[in-house]
Amino acid sequence: MTKKVLVTLSFSPDIITGFDGCVRMLTDKGFDVEVDARCRSLRTDELIPALSGVYAHVASAEQFTEAVMAAAPELKIISRMGVGYDAVDLPAATRRGIALTITPGANADAVAEYTVALMLALTRRLTAIDSGAKQGRWETTFGNSIYGKTLGVIGTGNIGKRVVRNLSGFSMRVLAYDPFPDEAFAREYGVTYCTLEQIFREGDYISVHCPLTAETQGLVSVKEFALMKPSARVINCARGEIIDEKALYEALADKRITGAALDVYEKEPFDENDPLLSLDNVVLSPHIAGMTYECRKTVIETAFQNIIDIAEGRKPDGLINPEVLDAW
Q1: What pLDDT digit, counting tens, does each position of 3-38 carry?
Q2: Are 80 and 102 in contact (CB under 8 A)?
Q3: What element of type H or E holds 33?
Q4: What is the per-residue pLDDT across 159-212, written as a single tens digit (0 to 9) for each?
Q5: Which residues are CB-contacts of 16 (< 8 A; sequence separation ≥ 6)?
Q6: Is 239 noted as a catalytic residue in this protein?
Q7: Is residue 22 a contact partner of residue 300, using CB atoms and an 8 Å limit?
C-alpha cells in the first residue's frame, strides 16, 4: 500500500527552484505526496481532516496536540521543517509511536545572518533612516558602532555559533551561556562562557538562540531587564515565549534599555494592537529569519530525507524520540 505524505508550506512552492526535484525524492521511493494548496500552517480544525490516511506529515507550525494525533491513527512521522518542536506534544507522540524529526543546521546560516542584520539595523537605526529618506528627508541620523562592544549569546547551538563566527570581524568581546558549553569552540573564537546574570549585566547586545522549554519560557523578564545596562539591545530570533513581552515593552518604553529587534513573538501573528508596534526603538519582522530561497530548499530536502531514512530503517540526525523506532 502506498504511503501518503502531506506537505504544508507557509509559502508557495513555486518560489523554490527545484521544488519538483525535492518531491521526486519521495515519489521515487514510492510515496504518494500531497502538497497542501493553502500555503500556510493549518489550524487544528483544518489539520485533523487533512491528516486522514497520512503516514508522514512535513509540517510547518501546526499544533500537534494529543487530540490531533488521536484523530490520525495512521500517522507515523511528523517531520518538522526547522529546529523548534514546541508545537508538538512530544510525550503524546512518543506514546502513540509517532516519530518526530527536525532539520538541525539546515536553516542555521540564514537565521544567523538575519540575526546580524537585525543587530546592525537596530544599532544604526536603518529602518528610521530608510523611512525618512523615502519621505524626502535628508537628515543626519546617529547610531552606534558594534565594534569592540560586548556580545552576549544565550545558546551556542548551530545558530548561536554561526552568529559568533559571523561577528568575529567586529572585535567584539563575546560572552555566552549554554548548559552544554563547547570549550573547543570557545577557545577558537575567544568566547567566555559565563552565567546568565553576567550576560544580562554586561551585554551591549544580547542575542537569544536557545530552544523553548519549560526552563527557558520567560527566561528574560522583569528581573533580567533590571540587570541590563541602559545601552543594552536585545535580539530574539529563537522563540517568542523566551522573552516576557510585557516586561520588554516596559523596559523599552521607559528607556531602561536602548532597543530590541524581534523576529518571534509570544503570539504569532502578533495582534495589530500590540503595544510593541508603537515604539520607535524596536525593529520587528514576522518570523522570517530562515526565509531565504537557499535555506528553504535545504530545509525541505532535509525534512523529506528524514522520512525516507525512517521508512528505510535508519535513524536521522534530527530524530527527537529514537525510542519510537526501537519500539517499531
Answers
A1: 999 999 999 999 999 999 999 999 999 999 999 999
A2: yes
A3: strand 32-35
A4: 999 999 999 999 999 999 999 999 999 999 999 999 999 999 999 999 999 999
A5: 22, 293, 296, 297, 300
A6: yes
A7: yes
Residue of 57, 125, 209, 287 marked catalytic: 287
pTM: 0.90
What span, in angstroms and rounded, lies between the C-alpha atoms of 228 and 38? 43
Spatial separation of the C-alpha atoms in residues 266 and 252, rounded to whole Å: 17
Grouping H, G, I as helix, E, B as strand and the rest as coil, residue 78 is: strand
In the set 57, 162, 209, 239, the catalytic residue is: 239
- 24 included as an active-site residue: no
**DSSP state, residue 254:** T
CA distance linking residue 82 with residue 299, whole number of Å: 7
Q: How far is CA 102 from CA 50, 186, 293, in A?
A: 21, 26, 19
Query: Residue 250's CB: how many other CB atoms inside 10 A?
Result: 14
Ramachandran angles phi, psi of 250, nearest 5°: -65, -40
Q: What is the pLDDT of residues 79-134, one digit of tens each?
A: 999 988 999 999 999 999 999 999 999 999 999 999 999 999 999 999 999 999 99
Q: List the catalytic residue out of 66, 197, 268, 294.
A: 268
- Cβ distance 101 to 319 under 8 Å? yes
